[in-house]
Write a structure and sequence with these properties.
CATH superfamily of the largest domain: Reverse transcriptase/Diguanylate cyclase domain
Oligomer: single chain
CATH topology of the largest domain: Alpha-Beta Plaits
Strand order of the largest sheet: 2-1-3-4-5
Radius of gyration: 28 Å
Order of helices and strands: EHEHEHEHEHEEHEHHEEHEHE
CATH class of the largest domain: Alpha Beta
Amino acid sequence: MPQVMVVDDSRTQRVIVSEYLRSLDCDIILCESGQEALMTVSEQIPDLIILDVEMPGLSGFETCKAIRGFLQEHWVPIIYLTGRSDPEDIVEGLNVGGDTYLSKPVHKDVLSAIARAMLRLSSIQAELMKANKKLDEVAHFDVLTQIMNRRGYQHMLERYWKDHQRRKASLTVMLMDIDFFKKYNDNYGHIQGDQCLRQVAQALKQALKRPIDVLARYGGEEFVVLLPDTATTGALKVAQRFIEAMLEANIPHEYSDCQPHVTLSIGLAHADLDNETSKQVLERADTALYQAKEAGRNCVRY
């Protein structure tokens, strides 16, 4: 059931508008001030807002502007219902974020019809947001391994980078490579190679203990992990869990020059958030990964 918020400092007007909207089969939320409306929106976003303009404290225009600022890209239709009908007032109201302007006294059928039309738009907007969210998830998802892809990793890295920079918290990046994967593909075939990638991804996923940790396929046989609020010592423990997880998975690889099962080389880098970029920390993790390969593979370096 849609929710309609009515904001008016006059109790009489709130009652009249509520009565007019009864035919819409909606839940009605009543607020007597702009401040109350803002608090309510911060806790529960309605599907439509009907807003008086002249109110003590925050005016309707100020309330509208504040709501738009809080909701950002989340659009909720806002109808002004007021005794002010000068062209300048209408232009100002629409410029700060209102969607339509009705003058008091308003006819019951007119208000109901416009409210119904705005609720239809609100419903379409909600469906579009769901569809866009799904598309965004698909764009950040690796179909083969069923984990995040490189694009998703980049998106999460930027978010974590800003957050950890603000909080002065530890953030560690880990880059991993399946050892001798070319030999695996050449000898077992690409279909079995794809299956190997899926098994490795699931083994790594299960080895991560926290929902805030990010695992992604970086490309080919490379995987990347973001460990928020984690310094080098903690990251080394996670890396060791990954190595043990591959031992447990025991995916046969008789063509490996390292072990008779699939193994990982791991490089990690603790981000210097104030003195390097996110690209530079990944480059350091890549250098550490190269060192792990030089050290005989199936190990971690930092």
